[in-house]
Prior knowledge:
By secondary structure, this protein is of the alpha+beta class. It is built from 3 helices and 8 strands, in the order αββαββββββα. Strand 1 and strand 2 form a beta hairpin. The N and C termini lie far apart (73 Å).
Amino acid sequence: MTRRALSVVLTAAGIVLIGVAALHYARGARAQREGSEILRERFATGYTPIAMANSDRDELPRGSVLSVAAGYPFGQPIARIRIPSARMDWVVFGGTDDATLEKGPGHVPGTALPGQEGAPENCVITAHRDSHFRNLGWLRKGHTIELETAAGTKAYRVVSREIVTPKAVRVLDATPAARLTLITCYPFTYIGPAPQRLVVVAEPIGGRRQVSGASAKASGE
């Protein structure tokens, strides 16, 4: 193959890769817009519909080590996460399969659902390091996180961050007290599948602030 022909082939391959990446981000942006609209409607009524469970999922981190209740909302928008210090504001979807993580951060099935009260107490959310959680590494102790559901908005404060291997499934374990655990692949600049995971742990600050339309109506606002 001549140098010119090789240059044409490499240029074409580069264009295809750019197109695939652009399509990936475009689908994610559309899913965020649609998910945001769905959550606005659900928050207004205080009702969160549940879809039928689909156990045929490939989850990262592996949620298969946990028991998943029937009717889990795979692929559906279930919450909104806001982290001002990391410039993050995303709709969270149920599940951690590839299709769901393309939409946005995914809740790990079998861990506490966002807005849930009572056991299990550890709510685990994960996302890709090159998209929705690309700024997760900015978080430090003391930074705040907000998790909004139909029940209201709950604030958390970061208490720790840790680098672990993918085999450290202990980060998914239920905890005695309420906890929010955020996970993404690490290092952020690694080429190819990253060998480690960044785990950020946050604990609740005070109570829950009611923000849903249903709450506003009940209070006469």
